[in-house]
Amino acid sequence: MKKTVVPAIAVLLCLSACGQDTAAIGNPFSDPVNSTPRPAVVTPEVSKTPEPSETPYIPEWEFNIPPEGTYVSTSENFSANYEPSVTFSEEGTFVMKENLLEGMGSYSGTYEYDGNYYECTVKEIDFSGFAGDDVKKLEFSRFDADTIILLTDLCGSNAKDVFTRAKSDTVAPSEEEYTIKPKQEVGKVTEKRLYTSSSKMFSEPYQPTLEMDPDGTFELTENLFEGMGHYTGTYEVDDYRLTLNVSSVDFKGFAGDAVKKIEFEALSKDVLELRTDLCGSLTGDVFYLNP
User: Fold this and answer.
1) Which is it for strands 217-223 and 228-238: parallel, antiparallel or unpaired?
2) Structure pTM?
3) Residue 184, Cβ neighbours under 10 Å: how many?
4) CB burial of residue 164 (10 Å; 0-12, 13-18, 19+)
């Protein structure tokens, strides 16, 4: 496997209030910043990510739960009465109220629901000049009967924010009504595979990647915020679980430099979800197979 060595260089993390340009991490020639691992809050611009051929997120569970209801953000960034929320109607329309950090705004439009995934088509936005004022689609994934997860970066809200059913809402079906959707197998690796992180924390060409060879070896390239680092070793495939056994790490002094095992779960053969915290990459980050 060919290894690319990237010198450790400083990366400027530009954190801006909503309404101002916020660049994704990536320019290696910017001014140096401290080496603190992943910042607490980042609202980057949407960067180009590999487009999956099917639904961009495939949950482990399939639920027999009706789509309608109101869900409220649990983020600690907002005080009472100023939390983002989203309401899905029986008629197939939605309204999402978003915290703009300088007031509230809203998205409205129509949605499609397949039992565990919401795809919302935005038809009207009542604000401008803030991050998220040009969003065309909002996406949510169901976690359980009373919880959904936002998959789109907006202004005050970010991808992976958790929304729970409003207390005034009708109680959803009990857990006994869930049906399990089988996990997808990683499959036998018969040719080189390259997966790229879809995290909006990083812009091209600084996204973390995972390269798997048919001979059972791998190289995972990680963004350290001050350059790129590499894990190498061998991998094991057990149905839907992929385990990377790390034999070599070419960096020190960063989060993840002592990791010996890195685990992924397959949402499909083409989509892997990271289950281990590294440096720039964290549990829950999704990697797509390059076409």
Assistant:
1) antiparallel
2) 0.42
3) 18
4) middle
Give Cα 17 to chain centroid, integer Å.
21
Q: For strand 69-73 and strand 162-165, is the pairing parallel, antiparallel, or unpaired? A: antiparallel
Cα gap 184→191, rounded to integer Å: 19
What distances in angstroms separate CA 178 from CA 9, 70, 118, 133, one per listed residue?
49, 20, 17, 36
Give me the residue spans of the domains in the chain.
7-53+184-291, 61-180
115 bridge partner residues = none
Are the CB atoms for 183 and 60 separated by under 8 Å? yes
Nearest to residue 101, comparing CAs of 80, 78, 124? 78
Q: How far apart are alpha carbons 214 and 204 in whole angstroms?
A: 26
Q: Thinking of the domain 61-180, which architecture would CATH place it in? A: Beta Barrel (2.40)
Torsion angle in degrees (nearest 10) through CA of 162, 199, 12, 4: 150
List, in sequence order, every beta strand (DSSP E) within the chain: 61-62, 69-73, 85-88, 93-99, 104-113, 117-125, 137-144, 147-150, 162-165, 179-180, 193-197, 209-212, 217-223, 228-238, 241-249, 261-268, 271-274, 286-289
Question: What is the pLDDT tens value at each position of the chain, 291 positions in all?
Answer: 544 444 444 433 434 444 444 444 444 444 444 444 554 444 444 444 444 444 444 444 445 678 899 999 999 888 888 999 999 999 999 999 999 988 899 999 999 998 878 999 999 999 999 999 999 999 999 887 888 999 999 999 999 899 999 876 544 444 443 343 445 567 788 889 999 998 877 888 899 999 999 999 999 999 999 899 999 999 998 888 899 999 999 999 999 999 999 999 888 778 888 999 999 998 888 899 887
